Amino acid sequence: MDLKQKIQKKIDQKTKPLGSLGKLEDIALKISLIQNSLNPELKQPVHLVFAADHGLADEGISLYPKEVTAQMVLNFLTGGAAINVFCRQNNIDLKVVDAGVDYDFENHQGIIHCKIARGTNNILKAPAMTIEQCLQAVEKGKELVQKEHDKGTNIISFGEMGIGNTSSASLLLHKFTDIPIDDCVGAGTGLDDEQIKKKISVLKQAAAKYHPTEPEEILANFGGFEIAMMAGAILQAKENAMIIIIDGFIATSALLAAYKINADVLDNCIFSHQSNEKAHKLMLKYLKADALLNLNLRLGEGTGAVLAYPIIKSAVLFLNEMASFDDAGVSNIDE
């Protein structure tokens, strides 16, 4: 009997009808396989929020000006954002990373300084990043995850903040999957129909300018520093056999890039929720992913990933603590 069969037998022997804990059983199996153990553990959960600005925001593709990126980072640092609330609720260690914000945070405590540049280029005028900048961001993401792993973390999630980053995510989805731009674009921060039409027009212009083929080149042309850093973080978490909780539209665009570099990353990913950003459903379908929650979220920050953590914890706890039929002296009607 191989490990997968042993885990499944342990799940099936719990005092319940076969399959009655639904997706919790799938999560328990997945985590046990990731950890190569019949008794998996969740250790020191960490949530990294990567923040960066986007030059394409100058084209009016968001309701908010670029300055909001820095303002929200300051809100994270003082504990006032939704992600702060949910991380506190679930005892998750929140860390905020300046991947490329157009602001000087030198005098602010608690931020991790990884700034590649003060925002990406406007894609209508030049590729978002040079390939060197992109690879630097990927490496920074890997380094950050390695530090957390070295301190004992085995489950990690990622969020983002960056005005304009739904546009980058839409472009990455289009370039990685060939899904038409019209289907890849949604309301973002709350655009109306006319504003969405303008956004589609801008992104079609951007998409037509460059035709890279390698994953890193696509990421450099159309991504953001926070997305590239998150892609590197995902790759390193896979390398370290960590559990990776994937958030919504932006985080999944980073996963798409990581997946194109190493398809095995999906083995370690738990998809927390389906975002209310319409193209996220297409991303999940492309990756053959089944999200745990559908709460109509479109905030970002990794809020969906953190909200799903208690469900993931429940999956591990039932596997480790729930009695088996033999333990409880209960007749197993499924035998």
Question: Secondary structure elements and their pairing?
Answer:
Elements: H1 3-12, H2 23-35, E1 46-52, H3 67-77, H4 82-89, E2 93-100, E3 111-113, H5 131-150, E4 155-161, H6 165-177, H7 181-184, H8 193-209, H9 215-222, H10 225-239, E5 243-246, H11 249-261, E6 269-271, H12 279-286, H13 303-321, H14 325-328
Parallel strand pairs: 1-2, 1-4, 2-3, 4-5, 5-6
Helix pairs in contact: 1-2, 2-13, 5-9, 5-10, 6-8, 6-9, 6-11, 9-11, 10-11, 11-12
Q: Can you tell me about this structure?
A:
By secondary structure, this protein is of the alpha/beta class. It has 2 domains: 3-40 and 319-328, Nicotinate-nucleotide-dimethylbenzimidazole phosphoribosyltransferase (CobT), small domain (5,6-Dimethylbenzimidazole Phosphoribosyltransferase, Chain: A, domain 1), CATH 1.10.1610.10; 46-312, Rossmann fold (3-Layer(aba) Sandwich), CATH 3.40.50.10210. It has helices at 3-12, 23-35, 67-77, 82-89, 131-150, 165-177, 181-184, 193-209, 215-222, 225-239, 249-261, 279-286, 303-321, 325-328, and strands at 46-52, 93-100, 111-113, 155-161, 243-246, 269-271. The chain has a 6-stranded parallel beta sheet, with helices on both faces. Strand 5, helix 11 (249-261) and strand 6 (269-271) form a beta-alpha-beta unit. Helix 10 (225-239) crosses helix 11. 48% of the residues are buried.
| Spatial separation of the terminal alpha carbons | 18 Å
In CATH terms, the superfamily of the largest domain is: Nicotinate-nucleotide-dimethylbenzimidazole phosphoribosyltransferase (CobT), large domain
Report the count of strand segments.
6
Q: Which structural class best describes the helix and strand composition?
A: alpha/beta
Residue stretches low in confidence (pLDDT < 50, at least 5 long) are none
Major sheet size, sense and barrel closure:
6 strands, parallel
| Average pLDDT metric | 95
- Strands of the largest sheet, in order across it? 3-2-1-4-5-6
| The CATH class of the largest domain | Alpha Beta
How many individual domains? 2
